[in-house]
Amino acid sequence: MGRVWSILFLTVPILGVWTFVAAMNDWWPMSEGAFGPGQWFPALDVSNHVIDHLFYLILYLTGAVFIGTGLVLFWFLWRYDAATNKDPVVFSHGSHALEVVWSILPAVVLLFIAIYQMDAWANARMRRPLTAEGAVKPPLCRVSGRQFEWRIQYPGEDGRLDTPDDLHVLNDLYVPVNEEVVIEIESLDVLHSFFLPNMRVKQDVVPGMRQYVWFHPVKEGVSDIVCAELCGWGHYKMRGQISVVNAAEYDRWFSAAYAAQETSAYDPAEEEE
Amino acid sequence: MSTTTIDSHTQAASHEMSVGSFLSTYVFSRDHKVIGIQFLFSTLIWFIVGGLLALGIRWQLAWPWSNMPVIGNMLFSAEGGQISPEFYTVLVTMHATVMIFLVIIPILAGAFGNFLIPLMIGADDMAFPTLNMLSYWFMWPAFIFFGAAFFTDGYGAAAGWTSYPPLSAMTTAAPGSGNAQTYWLLGVTFVGVSSMLGSVNYMTTIIQMRAPGMTMFRLPLTIWGMFITALLQAFALPVLTAAGFMLLADRLFGTGFFLPEALSVNNSPMVSGGGQPLLWQHLFWFYSHPAVYIMILPAMGMVSDILACFARKPIFGYKPMVYSICGIAGLGFIVWGHHMFVSGMNPGLGMTFMVATMMIALPSAVKTFNWLGTIYGGKVRFATPMLFALSFVSMFVIGGLSGIFMAATPVDIVIHDTYFIVAHFHYVLFAGTAMAVFGSIYFWFPKMFGRMMNETLGKIHFALTFLFMNGTFFTMHILGAGGFPRRLADPYHYPTFSHMLSMNQFMTICAIGMVAVQVIFAVNFFYSLFWGPKAGRNPWHANGLEWQAPSPPGHGNFDFQPIVYRGPYEYGSPESDEDFYPQTMPPKQERAELA
Ligand code: HEM
Ligand SMILES: [Cu+2]
Ligand SMILES: [Cu+2]
Fold it and tell me: Which intervals hold domain Cytochrome oxidase subunit II transmembrane region profile (chain A) (predicted)?
């Protein structure tokens, strides 16, 4: 029986690796496009590949440890099965040298992983994009989370938010392609999380706090805005849409939306209530 | 104190079994073994409840908005067997709450801590038996409050087990949850009181009541795990308790600890506020990160004991194992911010927490290598407890490695609040701790009840649980890496996630299988309780003190004064005539002198 149990534990690294490889190569019978061949994360629309790169780096490092420990466990169980092992027990209480090796080695690798992340983190969260003049880039728009919708507000002619000429839209975000996009996010009630899977952006929005996120789309297309923080019973349906379009289309959309707002009886102050 | 226990026992025994003595022996008992077994039965019952709630979640994720057979009608008759979005948020909240606060924490410290600590250190009972009895009975208000949080008007507590304000602080944020959130907070407070009473008791007992010769470095690793866990509880719990009262005050008395100025939710009147929602997260995780180690250190200890016993070999690197338990506990206090990387906390702080979190993977790795070293060169006996202990090692590796992805701040941006997190904590808590608990039940059952459990059923139970468990949880990594969010009643109306339905159906089928095969365990448990073959004192030929006491041990535990001569892991020692060497057996020349 010992043999059978050893093999059962051997299936862990085998099936584990198989599951990941199958997903990466789209063998799982679930694809309807979003996981293109070799496309693990949702379709990538940012020039900044660095988060995906970091993910795969950790995947390969931890994968090696996963396979290594799995094989060692299998081999020890197979080899030292009491039913077949004729050798006397190795009466040992440990090895100082080994302890030193397997403390220092992982420590170095872990420290390396941590330091290697820092630049990407700083770029994602701390170094807000600058304008050509070197000032911090003003936000393209403001997205406000509210149970259970995303309210979006673009500055009008005057380039400033919270003036009467602002454009208001609901759940429908348009951003220009090939440009650093900065968005101001806030919450009007409870916590939400502004999650753009395709842009590798996620930031909780906190009532009473004003925050900025930024990303750099390089491909035109439509994808999801997801709420990623439990915000009440309707959390699941708090869905928005982000459209990445070229500059001309962006201008066309903006003026059309603006014209529609002017002619409708829409009064943002009224809806605020 | 312990003498009073024995006195009252002899009195009880000399009288006929009156109602009063029945109550004091089996219900309001101050005997640590009875209290441990009370904890065991209570937590196993809640385990069933938590499992059924999980099936509700899995059903919705596989066949959204369709009627759930059998259980559906039991749980949500109001909706006619269909899960409403309101009820879905209750399900995720209460599943986690029940599993964490009513199953894992009390089964480790309450059931195994109580039963094993005095036996393994050679004491006749705990230092404070009355306090010990209270620690069990304080669980009952918690049971009642959590039950009320479920059934109270409307639909129940629904702010997640983390209960982030303002959702949990303002009644208008979750209309229909009524007083449930208040009951939930009271439930958590009572679990805290119970844990605190237990932890004071465990620390005192382990420091003060060890048998002669039982030095700290001769303690079994189980006891080290329990000891450090008690310390963690004692230092971290006050913070959660205080935070809980602050949140209660925000709900009931209009304080604004966690509410910003002029906040209005769902057209409620504006609150005066002046507080910060993130403050709750800091306080909550300051407790709840150490709490995840409270939920695994005792399990690591028990697994170490089982591994050494069935590999018939000393633990590899006993002292490094002790130091890494201490290291995990110490570092555990400075990593709570890794739950808050994208919360709005200062991103500079995120870097600090990232480094600390990476470093906490180090003692975890050291422990894993030492477990493998323990098997090396041994004579492995594949008994049921050993299979569960081995699976703990194999699965803990997965949970530890996935922690590294999440500790990496930029990667965590993508996977935070997705199924990757859910995969991670199920690998450490279910595949890790719960499997270790199963193994420990098979291992110590003979000591608890004096009878053996059935090995064949045990192995079938193990193999099926192991397979279904991995089918359920491993795939979650894939979903999470693809961004699939947690706590969403219907993720499929997002085009990004709609293709993940079939994978979820596969997982749900595995989950149903996993819950179903626990019937094998229940049958084995109850059959063996009454009809299992009688176990002698030491059926596994183990070294620990508990195995020198009768099975089950009577009041006062030992029928002789245990004296300890060596550590608990001298298996295969050349100085012993057999392949084990009990801690109480005098060394050879001393035996010769006696003879
Ligand atoms: C190698 C060591 C570990 C590391 C590096 C690690 C890291 C992390 C990180 C970074 C998170 C937060 C992820 C996020 O929300 O984005 C997390 C979540 C979690 N971890 Fe670990 N972890 C480790 C071990 C453990 C252990 C041993 C347990 C429990 C026994 C555990 C239980 C949990 C739980 C329950 C959560 C999720 C809480 C929630 O959001 O509901 N972890 N872990
Ligand atoms: Cu939400
Ligand atoms: Cu943590």
Answer: 24-128
Task: Round to whole Å and give the CA distance between B141 and B156.
Answer: 17
B217 token code pair: 């470095």
Inter-chain touch A110–B579, beta carbons under 8 Å? no
A264 pLDDT band, cuts 50/70/90, is confident
Question: How far apart are alpha carbons B7 and B492 in whole angstroms?
Answer: 65
SS3 B362: helix
Over residues B295-321, the pLDDT tens digits come to: 999 999 999 999 999 999 999 999 999
pLDDT of res. B74 = 66
pLDDT for the residue numbered B163: 94
Instruction: Compare CB distances from B572 to A77, A89, A103 and report the shortest one's residue.
Output: A89
The protein residue with its alpha carbon nearest to ligand 1, atom 3, reads B403
User: CA-CA distances (angstroms) from residue A166 to A162, A176, A222?
Assistant: 7, 18, 24
Between CA B17 and CA B54 the distance in angstroms is: 42
**Is B482 within 8 Å of A226 (Cβ atoms)?**
no
Q: What is the pLDDT of residue A265?
A: 60
Low-confidence winner among A254-268, B51-65, B117-131, B461-475 (lowest mean pLDDT): A254-268
Strand ranges in B55-167 using DSSP code E only, listed in sequence order: none
Task: Show which of residues 1-30 on chain A sit within 8 Å of chain B, judged by CB atoms.
Answer: 1-2, 5, 8-9, 12, 15-16, 19-20, 23, 28-30
Q: How many CB atoms lie within 10 A of CB B349?
A: 12
Task: Write down the pTM of the prediction.
Answer: 0.94
In angstroms, the CA B373 to CA B244 distance is 43
- Compute how many other C-beta atoms are within 10 angstroms of the C-beta atom of residue A33: 11
Say how many residues make up chain B: 595
Sign of the CA dihedral running B366, B428, B496, B501: positive
Q: Which two tokens stand for residue B555?
A: 């009041």
Which atom of ligand 1 is found nearest the CA of B162?
41
Q: Check residue A46 and give its pLDDT.
A: 66
Distance CA B427, CA B400 (A): 8
Task: Report which protein residue has its CA nearest ligand 1's atom 34.
Answer: B425
The pLDDT score that the predictor gives to residue B1 is 35
Question: Mapped to the 3 state alphabet, what secondary structure does B282-315 carry?
Answer: HHHHHHHHHHHHHCCHHHHHHHHHHHHHHHCCCC
Show which of residues 43-62 on chain A sit within 8 Å of chain B, judged by CB atoms. 50-51, 54-55, 58-59, 61-62
Helix (H, G, I), strand (E, B) or coil at B168: coil
What tens digit of pLDDT does each residue of B32-46 get?
999 999 999 999 999
Q: Which pLDDT does position A273 carry in this prediction?
A: 39
Q: Rounded distance, CA B464 to CA B472, Å?
A: 12
Q: ipTM beyond 0.90?
A: yes
- Angular region, B482: left φ>0, alpha ψ -120 to 50, beta rest: alpha
- For helices B297-311 and B435-449, give the axis angle rounded to 10 degrees: 70
The alpha carbon dihedral of B319, B322, B325, B331 has a sign of: negative
Residue B204 has pLDDT above 90, yes or no: yes
pLDDT of residue A34: 41
